[in-house]
Amino acid sequence: MNYDDIINMKHPTSINHPRMSMNNRAAQFAPFAALKTHVDKISEAGRLTTQKSILDEDQRQVLNRVLNNLLINKKEHLSIMIDYFVEDEYKEGGSYATVRGQFKDIDEINKRVILLDKTTILIDDIYYISILKD
Question: Beta-strand (E) ranges in the chain?
Fold first, then answer.
């Protein structure tokens, strides 16, 4: 085939649509990540979780004493540290997290500790709580 009739023609340019950048043009031919979901599932299966620890009677009494002390002194907005259980969204179990903040109140209806920064923690998920010295 002979393309002499079109080889030197000017490239057509649309007046309605801007030219696509070289990066966008190249992205059209990028490899399709069909196995990404499979790799994500393998990674998820290998991720470890922890079972929630159940407090014994002595630990519950200590926790209740600290919570009562915080309620009595709630206007002081005492600094506290809470270790608590966070349930995993995808698998059974979860992990433990620690938060530090200033105590605001206890929501007795929803059984949550409320911090000044509006963080809330379910009392049933608290493993340990301590009042920090400033």
Answer: 79-87, 94-107, 112-115, 120-122, 126-131
